[in-house]
Amino acid sequence: MSGTGFSEVPFVETSQLYGVHATQGPHLTDVRDHARFLRLYTTHEAVVRAYVRRLVPGRVDADDVMQEVALVLWAKFGIFRENGDFRNWAFGIARFEVLAWLRDRSRDRLVLDGDVAELIAEEALEDLTSLDQRRTALADCLEKMPLPQRRLLLESYQADCKIQEVAVSSGRSVAGFYQWLHRMRRTLLNCVQQQVAHFSCH
């Protein structure tokens, strides 16, 4: 299958395909619904695709599953709550579509057994959620740092960074700068761990 092409997806056909009554889904004439769907989908597509890729062997097959996920999301978008969690909703539909794909190919030796696949699907979702929490925590912790320190730290991790030059610009020797960098990394790590622990408690 090719790209999703939402602007060309006729709602009546997708609703019939997935057994969703037309009153349950958005109408293509409602530009606001269409724009809102595209905004939410493009925001979360990468992480949903990563989830699918962990479970479906082969990029082409994973793309096919993602196509189905996108069509189902659009067909059922009318029953999605205005302030609902689109990401979790998309993960739920992706999980269903992945398991359906695996069941359809259960005789293929390269495809996981259904029970095993379901267990891995749960673990993959937990891993992605944990990774997302760590990224959010890191962004929060960086935001809390004084701006000069944050800029210096981020500059140190640029691909074309030369530590000697960064050290000189910071007014430190190279050895002193490495010591400072080590302390900043430890501080960030502690902050991230505390933030993730906070997420886990809520």
From TrEMBL:
One of its GO terms (molecular function) is sigma factor activity. Keywords: Sigma factor, Transcription, Transcription regulation. InterPro entries: RNA_pol_sigma-70-like, RNA_pol_sigma-70_dom, RNA_pol_sigma70_ECF_RHOBA, RNA_pol_sigma70_r2, RNA_pol_sigma70_r4_t2, RNA_pol_sigma_r2, RNA_pol_sigma_r3/r4-like, WH-like_DNA-bd_sf. Gene3D superfamilies: 1.10.1740.10, Winged helix-like DNA-binding domain superfamily/Winged helix DNA-binding domain. Residues 137-188 form the RNA polymerase sigma factor 70 region 4 type domain. Pfam families: Sigma70_r2, Sigma70_r4_2. It comes from the Bacteria. The keyword Transmembrane helix does not apply. Residues 40-107 form the RNA polymerase sigma-70 region domain. GO terms for biological process: DNA-templated transcription initiation. Belongs to the sigma-70 factor family. ECF subfamily. This is RNA polymerase sigma factor.
